[in-house]
Amino acid sequence: MSSLDIRELEAFLVLAEELHFGRAGERLYLSQSRVSQLLRSLESRIGAPLVERTSRRVGLTPLGESFLSSLRPAYEALRSSVDEARAAARNVDGVLRIGFQGTVDDYLARAITGFEERYPQCAIEVAEIALSDPFGPVRRKEVDCAVVLLPVAEEDLLLGPVFSRQPQTLAVSARHPLAGRAAVSAEELADCRLIGIQDSAPEYWRLAQAPRETPEGRPIPAGPLVNTLQEGLSLTAADRGAMLLCRSTAEYHGHRGSIAFVPVEGLPDSLLGVVLRRRTGTPQAQAFAEVVAETLAEERG
Description:
The protein has 301 residues and is of the alpha/beta class. 41% of the residues lie in helices and 24% in strands.
């Protein structure tokens, strides 16, 4: 037992799920031949085939089925023990306070669930961050980390995983001339009064969310300034201006009959990132950033 290779067991478990050497290799970040090599080594160690291979399909032998049924719970228990030990060693317990702008989308919800499963002794508190103050709650230690719109260029803050690349969407009043369009170009923003963000946020960040000119240099009229997303949507519904939003936020608020959400072509996609304090960050925040990065890798894989 001392010579047992955990990589062999992982290769068998993934192959048993995929029943395809190529897909198993992709999940494990290994070549197809390496997966086959690990399986052969495990079968040699056991003394009998676990997998039937033909030119058309891959299947488990009866012994393979029996081995899988006993191995899976044992492997999950082993992984859980390792995660618990890692959490204890890093002191990942207590409370993790996460700030966010807008809405908690499906990706972020999966990351939070993954964190809860890995660190069950650490409770999560989620708080919405004002649109006009993306970095303040982290600096004031009101939250341990924040999920905010990019860009982030603060010397005292650390940018963790970047995710949720989304096309930008223009929110306009249902009475606005652009409301019925299937899409608008970035140059047509010159025909809108764009709602801006109060100046408690850094200027470079505010200009990224509400630019003053189109990509070709045409000026974009300035609309009223807001502190929160809800203020911006209320002003949009009242036809006081238009507002740029990422697609997931637009989809979340898409039920509002007084506002239309129109895709914008020709603007950079919006991105979210996890922001932590650079020198006084917490173990909980660092662990959450790692879980977000792993969730992103799984999604891309």
